[in-house]
Amino acid sequence: MEWGIRNRLAQLIQKDGRALFLPIDHGYFQGPTRKLEKPGETIKPLLPYADAIMLTRGVLRNCVDPVDTKPVILRVSGGTSVVGEDLANEGLITSIMEIVRLNASAVSMSVFVGSKYEHQSLINLARLVDECEDYGIPVMAVTAVGRELEKREARYLALCCRIAAELGARVVKTYYCSEDFHKVVEGCPVPVVIAGGPKVDSELEVFEFVYDGIQRGAIGVNLGRNVWQSEYPVAMIRAIRGIIHENCKPKEAQDLFQQVKAGKD
To answer: How many whole angstroms separate alpha carbon 53 and alpha carbon 65?
Structure first.
């Protein structure tokens, strides 16, 4: 592996082999979604606990202080919206020179396996890998499902992750599934991080699926809405960080959440 790729991956994946990525790129297709109306204000108290942030170039330029040294995963696919015909109809929206200018530690793009635009999104990933490898920049593939959340089962996710890795992605972001998630990870020859998906009903539910995913081989999470849409986002990210980097179990993470929420830690 080239020195530049290794160095950038080391910025993202910590010495314990784990990672906590904080995505705030949702506005590229959802607009000013709840709690991300002012992204800079939302992430300011969370940045100390994240290993990297994932966002678009527009939010990076306008909402993140350039003196901050937090690694950046730059979202470089888009071109569709929640009111459009098909969320899978994405293209590359950021050039390699822009990626370099913005000093990204990695880039991310979605692939939509099984959709009408499967071929388009997979070719986009392959071409992005070609360009980024020349500059030592790792690509994280996001196995997106659009509005079809029922696709989040192991056989489908394993297919998506393996294809993304075969096309050259250095990291894959995918959904957690309660059955056979280990098969998803075992079939993917590059590190896997867990996506959060829509906000769930309880904090403990998040802690349980994060913990289980780690036990089954994921290196960490790329979790957004279940953190910054929480009523206590700092307590939430600290508890999740406890699971990822301090080997907390779900109940221990819940206790930490309650302590931070009460201002006792």
So the answer is: 13
The answer to the question of residue 264 being in a domain is: no
Provide mean pLDDT across the span 12-36: 96
**Per-position b or e across 184-207, b if 16+ CB within 10 A of its CB:** bbeebebbbbbbbbeeeeebeebb
Report how far Cα 47 is from the mean position of its chain's Cα atoms.
Answer: 15
Integer distance in angstroms from the first to the last C-alpha of the chain?
A: 41
Question: pLDDT tens digits, residue range 120-167?
Answer: 999 999 999 999 999 999 999 999 875 555 667 999 999 999 999 999
CATH of the domain at 136: 3.20.20.70
- The answer to the question of residue 252 being in a domain is no
Residue 256: CB atoms within 10 A of its CB come to 21
Find, among 225, 21, 15, 213, the residue nearest to 108 by Cα: 21
> Is residue 174 within a helix (H) or strand (E), and if so which, with residue range?
strand 171-175
Residue 198: pLDDT band (50, 70, 90) is low
Q: How confident is the model at residue 69 (pLDDT cuts 50, 70, 90)?
A: confident
Residues involved in catalysis: 173
Q: Cα(176)–Cα(195) distance, rounded to whole angstroms?
A: 7
Average pLDDT, the chain: 94
Range of the domain at 194: 3-223
Phi and psi angles of residue 68, each rounded to the nearest 5 degrees, phi first? -70, 135
Identify the CA nearest to 166 among candidates 95, 99, 111.
111
Domain count along the chain:
1
Q: What per-residue confidence (pLDDT) applies to 41?
A: 96
